[in-house]
Amino acid sequence: MGIENQLTGDNILVTSLNKLVNWSRSNSVWPCTFGLACCALEMIATSLASFDISRFGSEVFRPSPRQSDLLIVAGTVSKKMAPMVKRVYDQMADPKWVIAMGACASCGGTFQSYAVLQGVDQIIPVDVYLPGCPPRPEALLAGLMKIQEKIRTENLNQRPDFKPGERYETQVPKVELIR
Amino acid sequence: MDIKGIVSRLEKTDPGAIDRVSGENEITLNFNDFNKAMQTLHDDKSLCFDMLVDIVAIDRIDRMPQSHRFDLVYILLCSKDFSRLLVRLAAGEDNEVPSVSSIWASADWAEREVYDLMGITFSGHPNLRRILTWKNFEGHPLRKDFPLEGKDFDQQFDTTSIEDY
Protein backbone atom coordinates (compact mmCIF):
# COMPACT_ATOMS: atom_id res chain seq x y z
CA MET A 1 0.00 0.00 0.00
CA GLY A 2 2.75 2.39 0.90
CA ILE A 3 6.46 2.35 0.25
CA GLU A 4 6.82 -1.18 -1.15
CA ASN A 5 4.63 -0.42 -4.15
CA GLN A 6 7.38 1.84 -5.52
CA LEU A 7 10.09 -0.78 -5.17
CA THR A 8 10.87 -2.73 -8.31
CA GLY A 9 14.02 -4.65 -9.10
CA ASP A 10 16.87 -5.76 -6.88
CA ASN A 11 19.43 -2.97 -6.91
CA ILE A 12 21.51 -1.67 -4.05
CA LEU A 13 19.06 1.07 -3.21
CA VAL A 14 16.05 -1.22 -2.99
CA THR A 15 17.74 -3.97 -1.01
CA SER A 16 19.16 -1.47 1.49
CA LEU A 17 15.74 0.10 1.88
CA ASN A 18 14.29 -3.39 2.34
CA LYS A 19 16.66 -3.97 5.22
CA LEU A 20 15.88 -0.64 6.82
CA VAL A 21 12.12 -0.98 6.56
CA ASN A 22 12.15 -4.60 7.73
CA TRP A 23 14.38 -3.74 10.67
CA SER A 24 12.08 -0.97 11.81
CA ARG A 25 8.96 -3.05 11.29
CA SER A 26 10.34 -6.08 13.11
CA ASN A 27 11.14 -4.07 16.22
CA SER A 28 7.74 -2.52 16.67
CA VAL A 29 5.24 -5.29 16.09
CA TRP A 30 2.19 -4.00 17.90
CA PRO A 31 -0.24 -6.75 18.82
CA CYS A 32 -4.00 -6.45 18.92
CA THR A 33 -5.72 -6.74 22.31
CA PHE A 34 -7.59 -9.92 21.55
CA GLY A 35 -8.02 -12.94 23.79
CA LEU A 36 -10.49 -15.78 23.48
CA ALA A 37 -9.70 -18.32 26.21
CA CYS A 38 -7.05 -19.41 28.73
CA CYS A 39 -4.22 -18.68 26.27
CA ALA A 40 -5.09 -15.00 26.72
CA LEU A 41 -3.90 -15.21 30.33
CA GLU A 42 -0.51 -16.45 29.16
CA MET A 43 -0.49 -13.62 26.65
CA ILE A 44 -1.20 -11.17 29.49
CA ALA A 45 1.53 -12.78 31.61
CA THR A 46 3.92 -12.32 28.69
CA SER A 47 3.27 -8.59 28.76
CA LEU A 48 3.86 -8.31 32.51
CA ALA A 49 7.11 -7.58 34.31
CA SER A 50 8.64 -11.05 34.67
CA PHE A 51 8.51 -11.89 30.96
CA ASP A 52 8.29 -8.36 29.59
CA ILE A 53 7.31 -8.48 25.93
CA SER A 54 8.53 -4.89 25.59
CA ARG A 55 12.07 -6.24 25.22
CA PHE A 56 10.93 -7.17 21.70
CA GLY A 57 9.13 -3.91 20.99
CA SER A 58 5.67 -5.44 21.24
CA GLU A 59 4.40 -4.07 24.51
CA VAL A 60 1.88 -1.76 22.91
CA PHE A 61 -1.31 -3.82 22.85
CA ARG A 62 -3.64 -1.72 20.73
CA PRO A 63 -7.33 -1.72 21.52
CA SER A 64 -8.13 -1.05 17.88
CA PRO A 65 -7.25 -3.50 15.08
CA ARG A 66 -6.61 -0.55 12.80
CA GLN A 67 -3.50 0.37 14.80
CA SER A 68 -2.03 -3.11 15.23
CA ASP A 69 0.32 -5.24 13.13
CA LEU A 70 0.01 -8.60 14.84
CA LEU A 71 -3.07 -10.67 15.66
CA ILE A 72 -2.40 -13.19 18.41
CA VAL A 73 -5.33 -15.60 18.21
CA ALA A 74 -5.11 -16.65 21.86
CA GLY A 75 -7.60 -19.41 22.55
CA THR A 76 -10.42 -21.55 21.26
CA VAL A 77 -12.17 -20.08 18.24
CA SER A 78 -15.79 -21.14 18.39
CA LYS A 79 -17.73 -21.13 15.16
CA LYS A 80 -19.94 -18.35 16.46
CA MET A 81 -16.84 -16.25 17.22
CA ALA A 82 -15.19 -16.97 13.85
CA PRO A 83 -16.87 -14.11 11.92
CA MET A 84 -15.60 -11.66 14.55
CA VAL A 85 -12.03 -13.01 14.31
CA LYS A 86 -12.15 -12.61 10.55
CA ARG A 87 -13.56 -9.12 10.95
CA VAL A 88 -10.77 -8.08 13.32
CA TYR A 89 -8.21 -9.46 10.86
CA ASP A 90 -9.84 -7.69 7.92
CA GLN A 91 -9.86 -4.39 9.78
CA MET A 92 -6.12 -4.53 10.45
CA ALA A 93 -4.05 -2.41 8.10
CA ASP A 94 -1.29 -4.02 6.02
CA PRO A 95 1.37 -5.16 6.76
CA LYS A 96 -0.06 -7.65 9.26
CA TRP A 97 0.91 -10.97 10.78
CA VAL A 98 -0.93 -13.68 12.66
CA ILE A 99 0.13 -16.03 15.45
CA ALA A 100 -2.16 -19.01 16.13
CA MET A 101 -1.43 -19.41 19.83
CA GLY A 102 -2.06 -22.79 21.42
CA ALA A 103 -3.49 -26.08 20.23
CA CYS A 104 -7.06 -24.78 19.91
CA ALA A 105 -6.28 -21.91 17.57
CA SER A 106 -3.90 -24.09 15.55
CA CYS A 107 -6.10 -27.15 15.01
CA GLY A 108 -9.09 -27.15 17.35
CA GLY A 109 -7.14 -28.81 20.16
CA THR A 110 -9.12 -31.16 22.34
CA PHE A 111 -12.40 -29.74 21.10
CA GLN A 112 -13.34 -32.02 18.22
CA SER A 113 -16.82 -30.66 18.39
CA TYR A 114 -19.71 -29.12 16.47
CA ALA A 115 -19.12 -25.71 18.02
CA VAL A 116 -15.37 -25.21 17.58
CA LEU A 117 -13.48 -24.12 14.49
CA GLN A 118 -10.80 -26.73 13.69
CA GLY A 119 -7.93 -24.29 13.29
CA VAL A 120 -8.07 -20.56 12.67
CA ASP A 121 -6.21 -21.08 9.36
CA GLN A 122 -9.58 -22.04 7.87
CA ILE A 123 -10.58 -18.39 7.90
CA ILE A 124 -7.39 -16.26 8.03
CA PRO A 125 -3.77 -16.86 6.93
CA VAL A 126 -1.46 -17.83 9.82
CA ASP A 127 2.29 -17.07 9.98
CA VAL A 128 3.34 -18.91 13.15
CA TYR A 129 1.68 -21.80 14.94
CA LEU A 130 2.47 -22.17 18.65
CA PRO A 131 2.00 -25.62 20.20
CA GLY A 132 1.03 -25.99 23.86
CA CYS A 133 -2.08 -25.99 25.97
CA PRO A 134 -1.65 -23.18 26.84
CA PRO A 135 1.89 -22.29 25.64
CA ARG A 136 4.19 -20.79 28.26
CA PRO A 137 5.04 -17.08 27.91
CA GLU A 138 8.52 -18.12 26.73
CA ALA A 139 6.86 -19.98 23.86
CA LEU A 140 4.91 -16.88 22.88
CA LEU A 141 8.13 -14.87 22.94
CA ALA A 142 9.74 -17.53 20.75
CA GLY A 143 6.81 -17.22 18.35
CA LEU A 144 7.20 -13.47 18.33
CA MET A 145 10.91 -13.87 17.54
CA LYS A 146 9.95 -16.17 14.66
CA ILE A 147 7.66 -13.41 13.35
CA GLN A 148 10.52 -10.91 13.67
CA GLU A 149 12.81 -13.30 11.81
CA LYS A 150 10.21 -13.62 9.09
CA ILE A 151 9.83 -9.85 8.80
CA ARG A 152 13.62 -9.32 8.60
CA THR A 153 14.08 -11.83 5.78
CA GLU A 154 11.07 -10.59 3.87
CA ASN A 155 11.34 -9.04 0.45
CA LEU A 156 8.99 -6.10 0.45
CA ASN A 157 7.73 -6.65 -3.08
CA GLN A 158 6.79 -10.22 -2.27
CA ARG A 159 4.34 -9.26 0.42
CA PRO A 160 0.69 -10.12 -0.25
CA ASP A 161 -0.25 -6.46 -0.04
CA PHE A 162 2.28 -5.50 -2.77
CA LYS A 163 0.60 -3.79 -5.72
CA PRO A 164 3.30 -2.58 -8.13
CA GLY A 165 3.15 1.03 -9.21
CA GLU A 166 0.11 1.91 -7.14
CA ARG A 167 0.46 5.20 -5.37
CA TYR A 168 -1.14 6.08 -2.12
CA GLU A 169 -2.41 9.60 -2.46
CA THR A 170 -4.06 11.58 0.21
CA GLN A 171 -7.25 13.23 -0.91
CA VAL A 172 -7.01 16.97 -0.47
CA PRO A 173 -10.44 18.54 -0.51
CA LYS A 174 -10.74 21.36 -2.98
CA VAL A 175 -11.62 24.62 -1.37
CA GLU A 176 -13.21 27.27 -3.48
CA LEU A 177 -13.03 30.79 -2.29
CA ILE A 178 -16.25 32.64 -2.38
CA ARG A 179 -15.70 36.16 -3.46
CA MET B 1 -40.04 -26.80 54.61
CA ASP B 2 -39.43 -30.53 54.28
CA ILE B 3 -40.77 -32.70 51.50
CA LYS B 4 -43.78 -33.94 53.52
CA GLY B 5 -44.95 -30.40 54.19
CA ILE B 6 -44.50 -29.41 50.55
CA VAL B 7 -46.46 -32.43 49.33
CA SER B 8 -49.35 -31.95 51.76
CA ARG B 9 -49.54 -28.25 50.96
CA LEU B 10 -49.55 -28.94 47.21
CA GLU B 11 -52.14 -31.71 47.57
CA LYS B 12 -54.44 -29.25 49.30
CA THR B 13 -54.34 -26.60 46.55
CA ASP B 14 -53.79 -28.76 43.45
CA PRO B 15 -55.06 -32.26 44.18
CA GLY B 16 -53.63 -34.91 41.88
CA ALA B 17 -50.84 -32.70 40.54
CA ILE B 18 -48.09 -34.80 42.11
CA ASP B 19 -47.37 -37.98 40.24
CA ARG B 20 -44.57 -39.32 42.38
CA VAL B 21 -42.39 -38.29 45.32
CA SER B 22 -38.84 -39.57 45.27
CA GLY B 23 -35.93 -39.00 47.60
CA GLU B 24 -35.63 -36.10 50.00
CA ASN B 25 -36.48 -33.19 47.76
CA GLU B 26 -37.83 -34.39 44.44
CA ILE B 27 -41.39 -34.51 43.15
CA THR B 28 -42.69 -35.49 39.72
CA LEU B 29 -45.62 -33.48 38.41
CA ASN B 30 -48.32 -34.52 35.99
CA PHE B 31 -48.09 -32.79 32.64
CA ASN B 32 -51.60 -31.34 32.70
CA ASP B 33 -51.38 -29.75 36.16
CA PHE B 34 -47.81 -28.57 35.72
CA ASN B 35 -48.30 -24.84 35.21
CA LYS B 36 -50.84 -24.48 38.01
CA ALA B 37 -48.71 -26.41 40.49
CA MET B 38 -45.63 -24.33 39.64
CA GLN B 39 -47.67 -21.16 40.20
CA THR B 40 -48.65 -22.50 43.63
CA LEU B 41 -45.06 -23.35 44.51
CA HIS B 42 -44.11 -19.77 43.73
CA ASP B 43 -47.11 -17.90 45.15
CA ASP B 44 -47.96 -19.84 48.32
CA LYS B 45 -46.81 -17.98 51.43
CA SER B 46 -45.63 -21.09 53.27
CA LEU B 47 -43.91 -22.72 50.28
CA CYS B 48 -42.44 -19.57 48.74
CA PHE B 49 -40.09 -20.99 46.12
CA ASP B 50 -39.17 -17.58 44.82
CA MET B 51 -36.10 -18.54 42.82
CA LEU B 52 -35.69 -20.81 39.82
CA VAL B 53 -32.02 -21.81 39.85
CA ASP B 54 -31.88 -23.78 36.62
CA ILE B 55 -33.76 -26.01 34.24
CA VAL B 56 -32.14 -29.32 33.33
CA ALA B 57 -33.23 -31.46 30.41
CA ILE B 58 -32.33 -35.14 30.13
CA ASP B 59 -32.55 -37.11 26.91
CA ARG B 60 -33.91 -40.59 27.73
CA ILE B 61 -33.77 -41.93 24.19
CA ASP B 62 -32.62 -45.30 25.52
CA ARG B 63 -35.95 -45.76 27.31
CA MET B 64 -38.08 -45.06 24.29
CA PRO B 65 -40.76 -45.99 23.40
CA GLN B 66 -41.72 -47.26 26.87
CA SER B 67 -41.56 -43.78 28.37
CA HIS B 68 -41.37 -40.16 27.24
CA ARG B 69 -38.20 -39.05 25.55
CA PHE B 70 -37.27 -36.08 27.75
CA ASP B 71 -37.14 -35.39 31.45
CA LEU B 72 -37.17 -31.77 32.58
CA VAL B 73 -35.89 -30.98 36.06
CA TYR B 74 -36.67 -27.56 37.53
CA ILE B 75 -34.42 -26.65 40.46
CA LEU B 76 -36.28 -24.35 42.85
CA LEU B 77 -34.92 -22.49 45.86
CA CYS B 78 -36.72 -20.81 48.73
CA SER B 79 -34.74 -17.78 49.86
CA LYS B 80 -36.41 -17.79 53.32
CA ASP B 81 -35.18 -21.12 54.67
CA PHE B 82 -32.96 -22.07 51.71
CA SER B 83 -34.82 -25.29 51.06
CA ARG B 84 -34.54 -26.71 47.60
CA LEU B 85 -36.98 -28.65 45.51
CA LEU B 86 -36.46 -30.58 42.30
CA VAL B 87 -39.57 -30.67 40.14
CA ARG B 88 -39.42 -33.34 37.48
CA LEU B 89 -41.62 -33.40 34.42
CA ALA B 90 -41.72 -35.99 31.64
CA ALA B 91 -42.11 -34.54 28.15
CA GLY B 92 -42.58 -36.26 24.83
CA GLU B 93 -40.89 -35.26 21.60
CA ASP B 94 -43.91 -33.36 20.30
CA ASN B 95 -45.14 -32.01 23.64
CA GLU B 96 -45.19 -28.25 24.06
CA VAL B 97 -44.22 -27.68 27.67
CA PRO B 98 -45.95 -24.67 29.23
CA SER B 99 -43.42 -21.92 29.87
CA VAL B 100 -42.80 -20.77 33.43
CA SER B 101 -41.12 -17.53 32.35
CA SER B 102 -44.18 -15.57 33.52
CA ILE B 103 -43.66 -17.01 37.04
CA TRP B 104 -39.85 -16.81 37.31
CA ALA B 105 -38.11 -14.34 35.00
CA SER B 106 -34.95 -16.44 35.08
CA ALA B 107 -36.81 -19.16 33.17
CA ASP B 108 -36.61 -17.02 30.05
CA TRP B 109 -32.97 -17.76 29.24
CA ALA B 110 -33.02 -21.20 30.83
CA GLU B 111 -35.87 -22.28 28.56
CA ARG B 112 -34.12 -20.79 25.56
CA GLU B 113 -31.06 -22.86 26.40
CA VAL B 114 -33.15 -26.03 26.74
CA TYR B 115 -34.83 -25.25 23.44
CA ASP B 116 -31.49 -24.57 21.75
CA LEU B 117 -29.60 -27.63 22.95
CA MET B 118 -32.41 -30.18 23.39
CA GLY B 119 -35.12 -28.99 21.04
CA ILE B 120 -37.96 -28.93 23.56
CA THR B 121 -40.43 -26.18 22.69
CA PHE B 122 -42.18 -24.10 25.32
CA SER B 123 -45.63 -22.64 24.80
CA GLY B 124 -46.18 -19.09 25.97
CA HIS B 125 -42.49 -18.13 25.94
CA PRO B 126 -42.06 -14.49 24.91
CA ASN B 127 -38.90 -14.94 22.84
CA LEU B 128 -38.09 -18.56 22.09
CA ARG B 129 -35.02 -18.49 19.86
CA ARG B 130 -31.56 -20.01 20.07
CA ILE B 131 -29.27 -18.60 22.73
CA LEU B 132 -25.91 -20.44 22.48
CA THR B 133 -25.69 -21.64 18.89
CA TRP B 134 -26.52 -19.45 15.94
CA LYS B 135 -29.77 -18.81 14.13
CA ASN B 136 -29.36 -21.17 11.18
CA PHE B 137 -27.74 -24.01 13.17
CA GLU B 138 -29.24 -27.35 12.21
CA GLY B 139 -30.28 -29.76 14.95
CA HIS B 140 -30.02 -29.71 18.71
CA PRO B 141 -26.49 -30.63 19.86
CA LEU B 142 -27.13 -32.15 23.29
CA ARG B 143 -29.58 -34.73 21.99
CA LYS B 144 -28.17 -38.23 22.16
CA ASP B 145 -28.71 -38.80 18.43
CA PHE B 146 -26.70 -35.71 17.44
CA PRO B 147 -23.20 -36.50 16.10
CA LEU B 148 -20.59 -35.03 18.48
CA GLU B 149 -18.51 -33.52 15.70
CA GLY B 150 -21.51 -31.98 13.97
CA LYS B 151 -22.78 -32.70 10.52
CA ASP B 152 -20.31 -30.68 8.44
CA PHE B 153 -17.16 -31.46 10.41
CA ASP B 154 -14.78 -32.28 7.52
CA GLN B 155 -15.87 -29.35 5.40
CA GLN B 156 -14.08 -26.03 5.17
CA PHE B 157 -15.77 -23.52 7.42
CA ASP B 158 -17.34 -20.47 5.84
CA THR B 159 -17.82 -17.47 8.11
CA THR B 160 -20.73 -16.19 6.04
CA SER B 161 -22.70 -19.33 6.93
CA ILE B 162 -23.45 -17.82 10.34
CA GLU B 163 -26.37 -15.45 9.96
CA ASP B 164 -26.60 -13.68 13.30
CA TYR B 165 -23.32 -12.82 14.92
Short description:
The complex is a heterodimer of chains A (179) and B (165). By secondary structure, chain A is mainly alpha-helical.
What does this protein structure show overall?
- The complex is a heterodimer of chains A (179) and B (165).
- Chain A has 179 residues and is mainly alpha-helical.
- Chain A has five helices and three strands.
- Chain A has helices spanning 12-26, 39-47, 82-91, 102-107, 137-152; strands spanning 70-74, 97-101, 128-130.
- Chain A has a three-stranded parallel sheet, with helices on both faces.
- By secondary structure, chain B is an alpha/beta fold.
- Chain B has a single domain (3-152), classed as Beta Polymerase, domain 2 (2-Layer Sandwich).
- Chain B contains three helices and seven strands.
- In chain B, the strands form two sheets. In chain B, strands 1-2-5-4-3 form a five-stranded mixed sheet. Chain B has a two-stranded parallel ribbon with strand order 6-7.
- Chain B is elongated, with a radius of gyration of 18 Å.
- The model of chain B has no long low-confidence stretch (mean pLDDT 89).
- Classes of the chains: A mainly alpha (179), B alpha/beta (165).
- The interface between A and B is medium-sized, with 14 and 16 residues.
CATH topology of the domain at 31-153 in chain A: Rossmann fold
CATH architecture label name of the domain at 31-153 in chain A: 3-Layer(aba) Sandwich
CATH fold name of chain B, please?
Beta Polymerase, domain 2
Main β-sheet description of chain B: 5 strands, mixed
Order of strands in the sheet with most strands of chain B: 1-2-5-4-3
N-to-C CA distance of chain A = 40 Å
Mean pLDDT of chain B: 89
